[in-house]
Amino acid sequence: MRKIATEEAFSIPEIADALEEVAATPSLDSDYWLVDAIYGAESKSPLRSKLLDLEDERLAEMDANGVSMHLLSLTAPGVQMFDADTACGLAELANDRLAEVVRRHPDRFAGLATFAPHAPRRAAEEMARAIESLHLNGFIVNSHTNNEYLDNRKYWPILEAAEDLDRCVYIHPRGPSAGLVGPFRDYGLAGATWGYGIEVSTHALRLILSGVLDRFPRLQLCIGHMGEAIPFWLWRIDNRWRMSTVPQRGKPLELTPSEYFKRNFVITTSGQENPLALDYSIKTLGIDNVLWAIDHPYQPTAPAVSFMDNAPVTEEEREKLYHLNAERVFHII
């Protein structure tokens, strides 16, 4: 059975070096701890070398575990901690390098293009280049940029480009925005344990409740980690939305929040190898809206494969989870 993993991180030396410079200046930014842990002068983490490796250990690990393809995306925080001009240049370079690797290994790699949200018009141009010239498969964005979210009207050129190009935007986690981060600074809560999921689920709900998805009804979005807990909350979100006494901004929504989520979002299993969560997500969202992922190199490959190999689903459902849904959503041949 073809196995396409859909949230698999990489980097390039130029971005790694730029993030090493970021790590050299201590900051209260909630992403600083991750940047310092991977790129800091005192770091002993193997993640930097694993992110930069695309054709050696990565392919060997894929082969050893029967993984057919990685859908590659520039690792968090992407280019979003840099100034706009630097970010645009590094995004173009990363996309060029990604396209080169995909061309060398078209049966092993597909790719999500990155862009600089803080330059929305240039981002839209780069998105078009990535699809029309580089033939990449969609887009990756690391949640907020300068503590702002994509529902902000100034970012609509990005959403318009994604809809016009008919390509999915994967909203990947980063540390909570400045207005959200306060209570997350203690006990390691700002990272993958809790803060990442809360950050992305907040971003997703802003897109839904703002009415942006009435403006862009064909926009396709993806979030990882079994939906960042949103599937579990959909009933209550709908219930509170119906009963809310808070005035809605603009015109009323055309659909319920859960209807937008099922229409405009798909989710992946990255880093959430829980059979009960998988079963609930399938029953809540439908089998066509769930995709398999590993989260390489942040999660090990073998358990992720074992999880899906042994998931309590039919073989027809397993085919959809492992590759058919990814092929459809990300235009993978």
Key terms:
333 residues; alpha/beta; TIM Barrel; 8-stranded parallel sheet; 8 strands; 10% strand; globular
Overview of this protein structure:
This protein has a single domain, classed as Metal-dependent hydrolases (TIM Barrel, Alpha-Beta Barrel), CATH 3.20.20. The protein is built from 14 helices and eight strands. The chain has helices at residues 13-23, 32-39, 47-52, 57-64, 84-104, 120-132, 156-165, 195-209, 212-215, 230-243, 257-264, 275-285, 301-309, 315-329, and strands at residues 4-10, 69-74, 109-113, 138-141, 169-171, 221-223, 265-268, 290-291. The chain has an eight-stranded parallel sheet with strand order 1-2-3-4-5-6-7-8.
Question: What does the secondary structure layout of this molecule look like, with pairings?
Answer:
Layout: E1 4-10, H1 13-23, H2 32-39, H3 47-52, H4 57-64, E2 69-74, H5 84-104, E3 109-113, H6 120-132, E4 138-141, H7 156-165, E5 169-171, H8 195-209, H9 212-215, E6 221-223, H10 230-243, H11 257-264, E7 265-268, H12 275-285, E8 290-291, H13 301-309, H14 315-329
Parallel strand pairs: 1-2, 2-3, 3-4, 4-5, 5-6, 6-7, 7-8
Helix pairs in contact: 1-2, 5-6, 6-7
The counted number of beta strands is 8
Count of helical regions: 14
Q: What number of structural domains do the residues give?
A: 1
CATH architectural name: Alpha-Beta Barrel
CATH homology-level superfamily: Metal-dependent hydrolases
Provide the helix percentage.
40-55%
Alpha-carbon distance between the two ends: 15 Å
N-to-C series of helices and strands: EHHHHEHEHEHEHHEHHEHEHH
